[in-house]
């Protein structure tokens, strides 16, 4: 099971680009790499320290096509397709509650991801063999019930349980030993 935002799709940079397009320059809003999963806890973003403002920015960015515009991380599709070809059932999973136009699945197809299932909801309700995700509380909950967890190396999830990977190309190698 594979998460989308900040796991295979660059949400942070997508949101940063959107903020730039809205006229907030680098001097005023450096938009640094978030140090916590809750982006409002990192200074230098227009919504820092303000959860309501974050929701406003997120909602506006999504309405303006953020989910279609996020860039896939380098090597993500190749790595997951390699696993799919090796017999893994690849389930794309997101807790996006606001993808009302079905952009996520079109984005996956457009960017060449081959997958066997798509799930939108609370991932902790499922028990996959493996979860690849960036959200620390989800990684902790899944690791606690015996799921093998992997996560990227964003500053906010380096301390999360499971194996960390810097490049997607490493993921099939890590999982080669799991099955
Ligand atoms: Mg995510």
Descriptive report:
The active site is at residues 3, 5. Belongs to the 5'(3')-deoxyribonucleotidase family. This protein is of the alpha/beta class and 179 residues long. The chain has two domains: 2-8 and 72-176, Rossmann fold, CATH 3.40.50; 11-69. It is built from seven helices and six strands, in the order E-H-H-H-H-E-H-E-E-H-E-E-H. It has helices at residues 11-21, 51-63, 66-69, 76-85, 103-110, 136-144, 171-176, and strands at 2-3, 91-94, 117-120, 130-132, 148-152, 163-165. It has a three-stranded parallel β-sheet, with no helix packed on it. Helix 5 links the parallel strand 2 and strand 3. The longest helix has 13 residues, at 51-63. The protein starts with a strand and ends with a helix. The mean pLDDT is 97. The site of magnesium ion has 7 residues, from loops.
């Amino acid at each position: 099971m594979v998460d989308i935002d900040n796991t295979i799709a660059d949400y942070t940079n997508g949101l940063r680009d959107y903020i730039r397009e809205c006229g907030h320059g680098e001097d005023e809003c450096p938009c640094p790499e978030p140090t916590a999963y809750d982006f409002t806890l990192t200074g230098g973003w227009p919504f820092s320290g303000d959860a309501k403002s974050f929701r406003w920015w997120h909602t506006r960015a999504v309405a303006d096509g953020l989910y279609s515009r996020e860039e896939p991380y380098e090597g993500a599709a190749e790595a997951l397709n390699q696993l799919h070809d090796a017999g893994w059932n690849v389930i794309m999973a997101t807790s996006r509650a606001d993808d009302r136009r079905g952009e996520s699945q079109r984005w996956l197809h457009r960017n060449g991801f081959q997958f066997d299932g798509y799930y939108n909801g609370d991932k902790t309700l499922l028990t996959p063999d493996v979860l690849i995700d960036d959200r620390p509380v989800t990684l902790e909950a899944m690791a606690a019930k015996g799921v093998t967890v992997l996560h990227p190396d964003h500053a906010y999830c380096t301390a999360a349980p499971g194996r960390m990977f810097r490049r997607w190309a490493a993921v099939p190698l890590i999982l080669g030993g799991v099955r």
